[in-house]
Structure formats: structure tokens, C-alpha cells
Design brief:
alpha/beta; 6-stranded mixed β-sheet; Rossmann fold; about 270 residues; about 40% helix; about 20% strand; binds NADP nicotinamide-adenine-dinucleotide phosphate; 6-stranded parallel β-sheet; 9 helices
Length: about 270
């Protein structure tokens, strides 16, 4: 099997983005591993997967817009990733490429740091890729999941496919019926004044946002002002990266704290802070 010195990991996406580079390289350094991580902006996902094989790249993260496009070119797809319908992680083990979805793992780890999901009623705003990963994982963890989405057909289709409830548009969300609210829409990402659940929060909710720029979105700030427990999108992001590092290196527990610090520093740098 082709190999490199140092061991090479990376990510493919439409436009290169620095966060994964900072998080992964901080982790490899903390683990004392001779690994390095490079982000590739590519326009051909099939050739990018071929490059993993040709160059012996150990692990490849997959971001927008290729999480579905890479799937036909892999040797195997993990059962959860197949159900979710998206791969964000390609693990090259002795030349065999397996696709995983660590967005799901990251979201569930972040939620379960705060609460046991079993039996809890959980509302998800959104029906895109992130919502699919979270709906799948939350149902698997025993939560009673209801999806709300701007486009009703997409929300209903997700609910039907995963055997969860569809609650209607975002306006139909009513806090009284839920103990957990997860925003999995892209509303709020790089939009510090947009809260997709504006005026609908209540102090009893545990509120998680998947958006991670700004680190504290308007949803999170509004929820905190009411006294809600909150989870920033950065926690899901670091936990999903931990899942990738555990696959690529075989370590049992990725170094969460140094990875989070690297992420927060880089977001601060990008935001001019
Ligand atoms: N923290 C993490 O680890 C992590 C991981 C993955 C993704 N993310 C973030 O998750 C977000 C969603 O990503 P995705 O891959 O799921 O995107 P996607 O597949 O394009 O789905 C976008 C979702 O957001 C909804 N939406 C977009 N703009 C909206 C608005 N102004 N008001 C209400 N709903 C709106 C869409 O509704 P329609 O169906 O009506 O279009 C859809 O449900 C992004 O911000 C991404 O950065 C975070």
C-alpha cells in the first residue's frame, strides 16, 4: 500500500477552510504522532478519492459539497453513514476506504455531555445534512425526535425516512412540548443577529446550535439570557473531529481540550479577534 512520511491526513471540500487543519494538527502534536493534515479545495470528488488511494493518504475528511458525491467511490460505507446518506470521513485502512459520518457521533457526544437522551423529547430545526445526522443519532440514542423545517416537503421526507415526527415549519415549534432544541439549519451561521427560534425559547430547554461562527450565536445568547442550558456548535465540531482522529490514529480518546483551544483560537483569528 502507498505510504507517506509524515503520515498524511486531510480534507476535501469546494473551497479550502483552515479550521480542520488547526484542529487536527493540534491533536497529532499533542498525541506525539508523526502525522500532518492538509486541506484540499478540489473540483472532482472521484479523482480526489483516487488520490487517497494513489498517495496512501491515511484519512480524509469530506466537507461541503462532497459528502454524498464521494460515496460511490468508496469500498465500504458504515451502516450509520449509509442511513444518514452522507460521509464526512474516509478511513484508509490498509488500502480499503470506508466512509463514516462523525457529524452524528459529534452531535450525540455533545448532547450527552449534558443529558441522557433516552426518552427525552427533542426538536430539530432543519432537514439538511446536519439535521439528518442528528435525527439519526438522537433516535438511535432513544430520544423522541420531531423535525421542523422551512420547506415542509423536505422536513416530512426526513421524518418519514427515519421514522420520526414532523412538526411543521420553524414557526410551529412550541417549547412546551420539548426538553431539548437543536438548531441544525444554516440560519445563524456567520449571521450574529439571526435566531431561527426567535421569541420561541423557554428557560426549561437545553439548546444546542450547530452553527459555530460566531462561537455564541444569537440563538445561544438568547437562550442563555433566559437561563437555558446551552451547547455551542464548536462542541459538536470538536467531538466530530475527535471521532475522525480516533479512526485515523487508532487512539482511544482524542485530546479534546487542545483541539478545542486550537479551534477557538482560529475562529478568533478569522473573526479578527
Ligand atoms: N458544528 C458542527 O460540527 C457542524 C457539522 C455539520 C454542519 N454544521 C453546520 O450546520 C449547518 C447546516 O449544514 P447542512 O449541511 O445541514 O446544510 P444543508 O444541507 O444545506 O441544509 C440547510 C438547512 O437549513 C435550512 N435553512 C437555511 N437557511 C435558512 C433560513 N434562513 N431560515 C430557516 N431555515 C434555513 C434549510 O431549510 P430548507 O430545507 O427549507 O432549505 C435546511 O433545512 C451549517 O451552518 C453548517 O456549517 C455544523
Amino acid at each position: 500500500m502507498p505510504k507517506s512520511i509524515p503520515v498524511l491526513c486531510g480534507s476535501i471540500m469546494g473551497e479550502p477552510f483552515s479550521l480542520g487543519v488547526k484542529i487536527h494538527n493540534a491533536a497529532y502534536q499533542a498525541l506525539g504522532l508523526d502525522y500532518t493534515f492538509v486541506c484540499f479545495g478540489v473540483d472532482n470528488p472521484e479523482l480526489a478519492v483516487q488520490a487517497i488511494r494513489t498517495l496512501g493518504i491515511r484519512g480524509m475528511n469530506v466537507s461541503m459539497p462532497y459528502k454524498q458525491a464521494v460515496m460511490p467511490f468508496l469500498d465500504k460505507i458504515d451502516e450509520a453513514a449509509r442511513s444518514i446518506g452522507a460521509v464526512n470521513t474516509i478511513n484508509n485502512h490498509n488500502g480499503k476506504l470506508t466512509g463514516y459520518n462523525t457529524d452524528c457521533i459529534g452531535a450525540i457526544r455533545a448532547l450527552e455531555e449534558k443529558t441522557n437522551l433516552n426518552g427525552r423529547s427533542l426538536a430539530i430545526l432543519g432537514a439538511g445534512g446536519a439535521a439528518r445526522a442528528i435525527a439519526f443519532g438522537a433516535k438511535w440514542a432513544g430520544a423522541k425526535v420531531t423535525v421542523f423545517n422551512r420547506s415542509p416537503e423536505r422536513g416530512q421526507a426526513l421524518a418519514d425516512e427515519f421514522g420520526v415526527s414532523f412538526g411543521g415549519s420553524l414557526d410551529d415549534f412550541c417549547a412546551d412540548k420539548f426538553s431539548i432544541l437543536v438548531n441544525a439549519t444554516s440560519a445563524g451561521f456567520r449571521a450574529p443577529d439571526l435566531n431561527p427560534a426567535e421569541g420561541k425559547l423557554s428557560a426549561h430547554l437545553l439548546v444546542m446550535d450547530v452553527a459555530f461562527i460566531p462561537i455564541e450565536t444569537k440563538l445561544i445568547r438568547d437562550a442563555q439570557a433566559l437561563g437555558c442550558q446551552t451547547i455551542n456548535g464548536t462542541r459538536m465540531l470538536v467531538h466530530q473531529a475527535c471521532g475522525q482522529i480516533e479512526l485515523y490514529t487508532g487512539c482511544s480518546e482524542a485530546p479534546y481540550a487542545v483541539m478545542e483551544q486550537a479551534l477557538l483560537e482560529e475562529i478568533g483569528r478569522m473573526s479578527g479577534g
